[in-house]
Write a structure and sequence with these properties.
Number of helices: 8
Largest sheet: 3 strands, antiparallel
Strand content: 5-15%
Helix content: 25-40%
Structural class: alpha+beta
Length: 133
């Protein structure tokens, strides 16, 4: 399990460790419970960071959070293209996430010679995939 928890706040904390901070605009649309668990990020004024472990439920395992690493550290060195793909796909801000067609243009997929028929990268991906022969 990528995020071994059943607590929502702990889940958010683990997500931020793996993929980075959530943009401020997303937090403004969250519940009061979640808003109170965020503070301005030291690195980027547009982002808020979770106030962890201050917002941790009492029963939470701090070792789970402390052992969570960024994507790049979870993937083997020889699989850097894969960690780059994951970083590209798993953006906290949905406005920055690529379309399926854009994702298929990532360097990780180049070795598979995948072509998206009838879909430009500026459109959503609804075309058929087919390997080059």
């Amino acid at each position: 399990m990528l995020f071994p928890t059943h607590d929502s706040v702990e889940h958010l904390a683990l997500m931020t460790k793996l993929i980075g901070q959530f943009p401020r605009w997303m937090i403004t649309f969250s519940s009061k419970e979640f808003k109170s668990c965020f503070r301005p990020s030291k690195d980027n004024a547009k982002e808020l960071q979770i106030d962890w472990p201050a917002c941790a439920p009492e029963e939470v395992s701090l070792s789970t959070y402390n052992n969570m690493k960024p994507i790049e550290e979870e993937v083997l060195e020889e699989d850097r293209e894969f960690s780059s793909l994951l970083r590209f796909l798993l953006k906290a801000d949905p406005k920055e996430r690529p379309s399926a067609a854009q994702a298929l243009e990532h360097e990780f997929f180049r070795r598979f010679n995948i072509v998206v028929k009838g879909v430009s990268t500026s459109q959503s991906s609804s075309g058929l995939l087919e390997g080059n022969k």
